[in-house]
Amino acid sequence: MTLVTPGTGGRAGARQAGGGAPAPARPGRSRLRRVPWRAYLYLLPALAVVAVLLLVPLGQAVQISLYRWDGLSPSTWAGFGDYLDLGRDPVLRSGFLHALVLIGFYAVIPVGVALVLAGAMTRAARLRGATVLRVLLFLPQVVATVVVATAWTAVYAPDGVLNSVLDAVGLHAVTRPWLGDFSTALPAVGLIGSWLELGLCLVLFLAGIGQIPRELYEAAKVDGAGAVREFFAVTLPGLRGQIAVALTLTVIAALKAFDLVYVATRGGPGNATAVPSYEIYDRAFNTGQVGDACALGVVMTLLILGVTVLIARLQPKEDDRA
Amino acid sequence: MITRREKAVNYAVLWLFAALSVFPLAGVAVSALSGGSTGSATFSWPDSLHWSNFAEAWSRGHFSHYLLASAVVAVSTVLLSSVLGILAGFAFAAFDFPGRSALFYLMLIGLMVPEEAFVIPLYFDLRNDGLTDTYAALILPQVAQSLGFAVFWLRNAFRAVPRSVVEAARIDGAGDWRVLWRILVPTTRPALTTLAMLVFMWTWNAFLIPLVMVQSEDLRTAPLGLAFFQGAHTTQFSLLAAAAIIVALPVVLLYLFLQRHFINGMLAGAVKE
User: Fold this and answer.
1) A315 close to B (CB below 8 A)
2) B180-213: per-residue pLDDT in tens?
């Protein structure tokens, strides 16, 4: 659902509040309604907080991104130099590639798997224990990422659960310190993301399927559609809105994987798990490349806005549901 | 129309994935109670229940400080963003004023912009004002970030209140202020509860802003404390697990009691993002 335009549907409220003055409304005068200045008073505190702590710093980030600055000495004008740096820096170039891989793990895998599962369950009437299932599936969403990372480092540890299982089934040859190995660290972090987001997607899609009219499934059956045809003809179109929401949430989560990377790998080994959100922090606060970090932050913001707008176009046109 | 076997498979698959969702966290919970010899960095099964891990993690990891800091930050953030959100949500729901659309979208920017983008200048700004390493540096940025959702959420909630209820109050001579606090706020209590829960969770779990804004150990929030504790105790997982449980428990308990608020709020809120 895209944002509801504030101009619509607010009439009722506007009129009732505008009528705060006891004078009876005279016909023909309604167009000359006075500006309700007190509205600005109600708005002011929130607006001030957002402006000072979010909008101004955001503007400053754009400004700093045009300078070369180490955070201490005077800055020098760089124009778009910092942005060009981003393209030239091999660590950042691979960082963007890593972010793309994480999008695969955070968004594509969970959405895909959840769609298949949900599609297989369209004909399950009412699930017993649905509440308990929902609570369990959604649990990873409410646990602090630091705790999640702690749990998974134990799974991936050299003497961890994963290696024990592999040992037990005779695959000792593949055991390794998963988060410390150059070739497996990124997919290992990615799988934590798949684990994080799968439950969210499942809960969303199961709820969405409940809203698809039963008649559509019956009609498909009458037309002789098999399970696969039914999935593509009824379930998939019926879930378009939920898929868009799931993709938006999971892609943004993949781009903002800072907490997980910071706790699980610190971008390592080497730069194997360096992603833009981690590089922003590292460059601004550890290596004194504040200009580059701000440019990267601006790029990341634009990416998130772009992804959101792009995915919003997937959504069915909003009717009067809101 | 649906075979028994199909149904059984559906249940089996769903429960399998539910179990997978819980497994790593359950592993932490179980390990937190195990004797866990030093040197193990993974889950361990308790031979008997070692509750002492919690006491040891609590005192060795200074978690009383961290939980206190987290509680102060989360509760203040919830209160501030609720009150400011109620006022601003009312402005957008009840009045028609020049610039309303533009200001509304401006408020929503916080929903979209990643904190990575503004945290760097914000750090330098707050440092210049001598505010880093204070509660203000932990609370105010979280309030600013939560307000986008709060305003959006409450504006919709206030609009959903039937006009007749508000008009009846108007006829009784209630002004704006009274209508807001005596009519709209009480009738939208469920929406306010959801908002409070979500803001509490987001603030409690926040990591980047506390990491950047405070150096002092007394101001470390619980997740930050856990990250430092982890760095120091990589080889004694039972202790680390107990610490992780301490950090996760407040939000998880709230979630278990008010799961409907969490799930519906996060999904509905997400829809608007």
Assistant:
1) no
2) 999 999 999 999 999 999 999 999 999 999 999 9
CA distances to A134, A218, A234, B207, B269 from A123, rounded to whole Å, are: 18, 10, 12, 42, 29
Asked if residue A319 lies in contact with residue A306, where contact means CB atoms within 8 angstroms, the answer is no
Q: How many CB pairs under 8 A join A and B?
A: 344
8 Å CB contact of B116 and A54:
no
CA distances from A167 to A161, A172, B125, B237 (A): 10, 5, 53, 21
Are residues A102 and A275 in contact, defined by beta-carbon separation less than 8 angstroms? Answer: yes
Tokens encoding A53? 């702590």
Report how far Cα A237 is from the mean position of its chain's Cα atoms.
Answer: 22
**β-pair partners for A193:** none
Q: What's at A316, amino acid-wise?
A: P
Degrees, nearest 5: CA angle B241-B74-A293? 80
What's the length of chain B?
273
**Rounded Cα distance, A106 and A275, in Å:** 14
Gap between the Cα atoms of A297 and A285, Å rounded: 14
pLDDT at B250: 94
The pLDDT of B28-46, averaged and rounded, is 77
Q: What is the pLDDT of residues A71-105, one digit of tens each?
A: 888 888 888 888 888 888 888 889 999 999 999 99
Rounded CA separation B247/B229 (Å) = 11
HSE, side-chain direction, 13 A CA sphere, residue A170 = 0
- Tell me which of B95, B132, B197 to substitute to probe the interface with A (most A C-beta atoms closer than 10 Å): B95
Q: A265: closest CA among A197, A163, A190, A172?
A: A190
Q: What is the ipTM of this complex?
A: 0.91
Could you tell me which residues come within 8 angstroms of residue B130 by beta carbon, excluding any fewer than 6 positions away?
none
Residue A316 DSSP symbol? P
Q: Are A122 and A209 in contact (CB under 8 A)?
A: yes
Q: Where are the beta strands (DSSP E) in A5-120?
A: 67-68, 76-77
Rg (CA), chain A: 25
Burial class, A292, CB count within 10 angstroms (exposed 0-12 / middle 13-18 / buried 19+): buried
Per-residue model confidence (pLDDT) at position A15? 39
Chain B residues with CB-CB distance to A50 below 8 A: 106-107, 109-110, 144, 147-148
